[in-house]
Amino acid sequence: MAAVVKAAADTDAAVIRASLADPDRFAPIYDRYAAMLYRYAYQRVGPEIADDVVAEAFLAAFRGRASYDLDRQDARPWLFGILTREMATHHRREKARYRAMSRSTQETVQDGPADQVAARLVADAARGPLAAALAGLAPGDRDVLLLVAWGQLSYDEVADALGIPQGTVGSRLNRARRKVRKALGDFDPTTTKEENDEI
Fold first, then answer.
1. What is the pLDDT of residue 122?
2. What's the CATH code, domain 137-199?
């Protein structure tokens, strides 16, 4: 019974609720999700500003914690939504990053088993066209695609994060995947191998 009570006390909602009376109690939210949000921001806007964007997102989350829906136990969609809005202010830099990646030819040799080397060569070959395809997407479509592919959020979580209906998530994701697939010669890196084989 004590384990169940402890687990409920450790939920994101419980931590945020406690932080309303004691702001220092918000720290576990940062500890739980900072690395995850940083990886996502790093992939989207690059290392130059990823730290700043994540810091801005956590500051906005801290300031807005009183409006958090305490019925939602998992704060990830809320945090990814805040991060996505913070990154929107850097959309020009994100597009420039994708354009630069699409022009770069990265030839890296990786020591290790043959499968790792082959996988790296395939990934490097797809990097330019993928970056160009991402740069060409509408911001809303790109947000949905990358929250699913890189943020690993479910459709429901993306809908919560962006404040849009789940049907809109599906239509934006389908549109974005179709454009990316076309740019990559009918291969979609945001789906599993089995899903690509069905295409």
1. 39
2. 1.10.10.10
